[in-house]
């Protein structure tokens, strides 16, 4: 496993705040962004996997088919599993923004909901009570609107610039939310990618296609066992 030094990682994350915020416009449920299409799959009849996150999920700076959710879709097809992947990532998204749009995105039920949010909160120094509350509200909304969905939570880490206690508690909140809500946890989405120059674009912020392939490998290692479980029958 590649070791990530905090010196490099700190620089990467501090740049990420500026980079992601350039596209951070207010999000409302009345006018949802075009990227956040309803997670329906009526045309194919396949259950849906919805990736709900920020620029990492959206694949900012790479082609749509190079972003890790699309690569997961390819792995699903290769494994002979019947799922449709929907990418509902939005660059610059915070947990508050995600909370405001999740209800619209979930107008149709999903089988798996991959939640990748919180990094931008940590970079802005948003109180952890707010981040935790927003993530919990998103989880509660998923459980209400798509009760059969398996929720997968992607963990994130931040450097100790805002204090070692804040950074440690930020990291811990993902595990605590996963345990409290019986979620599947990806311990650290950017394992082996964050802060590694050759795996990030020229801005030093967003993964290259090669970086996204590593993200996909990390996610697939957690997600594949979930997808191989029998799906509950409709109405059960």
SSE layout and pairing:
Blueprint: H1 6-21, E1 48-53, H2 55-58, H3 68-78, E2 84-87, H4 95-105, E3 112-116, H5 119-124, H6 128-145, E4 150-154, H7 164-181, E5 184-186, H8 209-227
Parallel strand pairs: 1-2, 1-3, 3-4, 4-5
Oligomer: single chain
Strand content: 5-15%
Q: Outline the low-pLDDT stretches.
A: 1-19, 21-42
Instruction: Describe the main β-sheet briefly.
Output: 5 strands, parallel
Structural class: alpha/beta
Given the C-alpha coordinates, what overall shape results? globular
First-to-last CA distance: 41 Å
In DSSP terms (H or I, runs of 4 or more residues), the helix count works out at 8
Order of SSEs:
HEHHEHEHHEHEH
Total number of beta strands: 5
Helix content: 40-55%
In round numbers, the mean pLDDT is 84
Computed over alpha carbons, the radius of gyration is: 17 Å
Strand order of the largest sheet: 2-1-3-4-5
Structure description:
The chain has 236 residues and is an alpha/beta fold. The chain is built from eight helices and five strands, in the order αβααβαβααβαβα. The chain has a five-stranded parallel β-sheet with strand order 2-1-3-4-5, sandwiched between helices. Helix 6 (128-145) runs parallel beside helix 7 (164-181). The longest helix is centred in the last third of the chain and has 19 residues, at 209-227.
Tags for this entry?
single chain; five-stranded parallel beta sheet; alpha/beta
């Amino acid at each position: 496993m590649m070791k990530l030094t905090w010196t490099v990682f700190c620089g990467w994350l501090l740049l990420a705040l500026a980079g992601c915020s350039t596209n951070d416009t207010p999000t409302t449920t009345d006018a949802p962004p075009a990227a956040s299409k309803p997670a329906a799959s009526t045309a194919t009849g396949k259950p849906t996997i919805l990736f709900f996150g920020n620029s990492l999920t959206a694949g900012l700076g790479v082609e749509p088919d190079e972003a890790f959710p699309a690569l997961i879709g390819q792995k699903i097809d290769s494994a002979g599993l019947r799922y449709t992947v929907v990418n509902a990532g939005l660059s610059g998204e915070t947990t508050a923004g995600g909370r405001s749009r999740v209800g619209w995105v979930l107008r149709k039920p999903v089988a798996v909901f991959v939640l990748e949010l919180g990094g931008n909160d940590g970079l802005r120094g948003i109180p952890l009570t707010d981040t935790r509350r927003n993530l919990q509200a998103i989880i509660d909304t998923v459980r209400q609107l798509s009760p059969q969905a398996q929720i997968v939570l992607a963990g994130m880490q931040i450097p100790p610039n805002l204090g070692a206690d804040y950074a440690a508690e930020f990291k811990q909140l993902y595990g605590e939310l996963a345990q409290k809500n019986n979620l599947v946890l990806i311990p650290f989405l950017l394992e082996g990618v964050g802060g590694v120059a050759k795996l990030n674009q020229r801005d030093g912020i967003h993964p290259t296609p090669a970086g996204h392939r590593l993200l996909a490998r990390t996610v697939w290692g957690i997600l594949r066992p979930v997808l191989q479980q029998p799906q509950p029958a409709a109405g059960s």
